[in-house]
Write a structure and sequence with these properties.
The chain is an alpha+beta fold. The chain folds into two domains: 2-153, Fructose-1,6-Bisphosphatase, Chain A, domain 1, CATH 3.30.540.10; 164-272, D-Maltodextrin-Binding Protein, domain 2, CATH 3.40.190. It is 33% helix and 27% strand. The chain is built from nine helices and 14 strands. The protein has helices at residues 2-8, 10-25, 49-65, 74-79, 102-106, 176-183, 198-206, 220-232, 261-271; strands spanning 37-42, 45-48, 70-73, 93-100, 113-120, 123-131, 136-141, 145-148, 151-152, 164-168, 190-194, 212-215, 236-239, 255-258. It has a seven-stranded mixed β-sheet, sandwiched between helices. It starts with a helix and ends with a helix. This is inositol-phosphate phosphatase.
Length: 275
Amino acid sequence: MIDDFLVHGLTHVEEVVRKAAAVEIVPRFRQLAAHEIVEKSGPHDLVTVADRLAEEFLTTALTELLPGSVVVGEEAVHADPTTYEAIRGEAPVWIVDPVDGTRQFVHGDPGFCTLVALALGGEVLASWTYAPALDELAVAVRGQGAVLNGEPLRAGSPAAGQVLQVATSHPDYTTPEQKQALLGLRVEGVDPRPCGSAGLEYLAVARGEVDAVAFSWEAAWDHAAGVLLVEEAGGAHLTRAGEPFRITGGNALPFTAARDAATARRVAGLLSGGA
C-alpha cells in the first residue's frame, strides 16, 4: 500500500499542504488578534489559532489520502503527549508541524513554513516543506532526490577554507550541558548563529546557503521533513555519538545536519568536544 502511495499519491499531498496554508494560515498572516495567540511553555513558545486549525485540516485530509495512517502533530501532542508514540508504531505516520516558526508568523515575518513528513517504521519516506509567504515548496522522496519549486536541490560542499555558517538552537531551549556542547562551535573557521524556523534552516542547508544546523532538541515535527530534505539533496546528519539522527528519539544531542558528510563529521566532532 505504501509503495503504491509513494508512486501515485504524492502530488495529492502537495495539494493538501498548499490548501491548508491557503485556508487556515495565509488569511491570518499579519491579521492575528491578541486573543488568537497563546503562550505554551514561555514567551518564545507560541501557538495561534492558525496552528490549531491548520493541523486539524491536515489531520483530516492526510488520513483520508492514506487510509490506515495516523498523524503526530505538534499541537495534538501538546494536548496529549501519548499520541507521540505513534512514531514508533506499525502504521504509516504523518508528522506535522502546521506552522514552524510560529514566533516569526506572529511578528509578521515571512520566515515560517508548514512541515509534513510521511514515515513508516521510524524511517522518513517523503517530506514537504512549504513556505507560503515566500512561495517556496520543497519536496523530498527517499531515494529519489529533492526539489524546490520543481527544480532539483543540491546542497553541494563548502568551499575549501571558507568559514562554516551554522544555525544553532536558541539558547533558551538548551540545557547547561547542551550549551557547553554548542560552545564547541565557537572556534576559528565556524560562524554559529541562533536559528529561525527549523524547517527553513534545513531548506537553506539543502540549497547550499547555510553549511550546517546544530540542534539540541529532537521533536520529530521539527526535524523529520528537514533531515530527509538535506539527505536527498546530498547532505548528511549525525548526532554527537556519530550516528544518524533517529526520528524515534534517544539521540545523543545536540546533532547536526550538513551540506555534505565531511561537514557533518566536523560539526559533530566539535559538538562532542573534538577539534
